[in-house]
Amino acid sequence: MSWLTVETPLPSGPMHIAVTPLGVVAGGYLGDEAGELPRCTDEAKIAAVNGRIGTYLAGRSRELGLPIDWSLSTGPHRAVLQTLLREVPYGRTITYGELAARSGVFEDVAEPGLAARTVGQMMAANPVPLLVPCHRVVAADGIGGFGGGRVGIDVKRWLLTLEGVLEPTLDWNGPL
């Protein structure tokens, strides 16, 4: 696994992306420094990741088209993430509860709200945010949460505005 930094217009600043021979394995918002982690030196991977994320965040593409290495998610977590990726396209949202139901993972859960809360925790632990669009998962009564506190919510709003789910505000700094 090696890391690269992608400059973004997101309120959180750059993203840090980890790649393997299989694809993107991890990523993060909030400009966390990669520090001592091994740096990616594969120019083709660097160009592909920077180009595709840049094109997406500029509003010139609706698909990232990067391969995903699923090795950091297993079992029910992977099933829920793959359901999200497969069934919730650009410009659409789904509630935590709806995603729980569609995934089929929580069929035996009887406690009201438990499946939805668990999906929320799974979204917070998504190893490949943006590629697996956890920003598209919202609460039944509003936008819901997003890792990173206030900055995280700003990122979620920015991405949902980019995708046309939310109307741009006066301070919108994304593509028109």
From TrEMBL:
It catalyses: a 6-O-methyl-2'-deoxyguanosine in DNA + L-cysteinyl-[protein] = S-methyl-L-cysteinyl-[protein] + a 2'-deoxyguanosine in DNA; a 4-O-methyl-thymidine in DNA + L-cysteinyl-[protein] = a thymidine in DNA + S-methyl-L-cysteinyl-[protein]. GO terms for molecular function: methylated-DNA-[protein]-cysteine S-methyltransferase activity. Its EC number is 2.1.1.63. It comes from Kitasatospora aburaviensis. Pfam families: DNA_binding_1 (PF01035). The keyword Nucleotide-binding does not apply. Residues 79-165 form the Methylated-DNA-[protein]-cysteine S-methyltransferase DNA binding domain. GO terms for biological process: methylation. Keywords: DNA damage, DNA repair, Methyltransferase, Transferase. This is Methylated-DNA--protein-cysteine methyltransferase. InterPro entries: MethylDNA_cys_MeTrfase_AS, MethylDNA_cys_MeTrfase_DNA-bd, MethylDNA_cys_MeTrfase_DNAb, WH-like_DNA-bd_sf. PANTHER family: METHYLATED-DNA--PROTEIN-CYSTEINE METHYLTRANSFERASE (PTHR46460).
